[in-house]
Amino acid sequence: MKRYVIPALCLGLLSATAAKADTTTGSQAFGMSAVQAAVGKYGQAIGSDVRGMNPLGNFGGNLGYKNSGTGNVGAFNSGTGNVGAFNGNNNTSATSGNGNIGAFNGNGNTGEYNGNSNIGAGNGNFNGGSFNGNGNAGAFNGNFNGRGNR
Predict the structure, then answer these.
(1) Secondary element (H or E) of residue 85
(2) Is 75 domain-assigned?
(3) How many domains in the chain?
(4) Ramachandran area for residue 113 (φ above 0: left; ψ -120 to 50: alpha; else beta)
(5) 82 in helix, strand or coil?
(6) What pLDDT is stored for residue 120 in this prediction?
(7) Rounded-to-integer distance, Cα 61 and Cα 51, Å
(8) Which of 31, 105, 126, 136 is the most buried (most CB within 10 A)?
(9) Could you say which residues of the chain have pLDDT below 50?
């Protein structure tokens, strides 16, 4: 009889945990200021540290593989202060695609101030207007917004 008590307790704990699971998206779970503060602490700060230490001076203060811009860590990053891979590429404005952490953030934007300060994957991409796809946490937030520059 005793050997059924422990599995029953474990099942009860799992059920209680599942009932309290947070189902909000990244953009809802984190306020804009909290996300930007986190990115400021990790993304821009790391980028600044890379520039300050200047480990690869001939590569513009970037650390990794095929990075352009300044203060990027990882691979195939452009813009400023990106950490990860494939961040901040193919933007027409220098104010877009900066300070991202993760992969495939802040790419292909034609407006200004698009795809900045995102944490996760696939955030802030392919926006046509201005001030789109910023401050997201999670995956696939703030994409394909806007119809042109203001």
Answers:
(1) strand 83-85
(2) yes
(3) 1
(4) left
(5) coil
(6) 96
(7) 5
(8) 105
(9) 17-30, 53-57, 150
In a domain, 42, yes or no: yes
Q: What is the distance, to the nearest Å, from the Cα of residue 121 to the centroid of all Cα atoms in its chain? A: 6
Range of the domain at 51: 31-139
- The structure tokens listed for 9 are 């307790």
Q: How far is CA 15 from CA 4, 19, 122, in A?
A: 17, 6, 32
**Is 17 domain-assigned?**
no
What is the Cα–Cα distance from 61 to 68, expressed in whole angstroms? 9
Do residues 143 and 121 make contact, with C-beta atoms less than 8 angstroms apart?
Answer: no
CA 28/CA 94 separation, integer angstroms: 27
- DSSP SS3 for 30: coil
Dist CA 95 CA 80 (whole Å): 9
Three-state SS at 95: coil
- Residue 45 has a pLDDT of 57
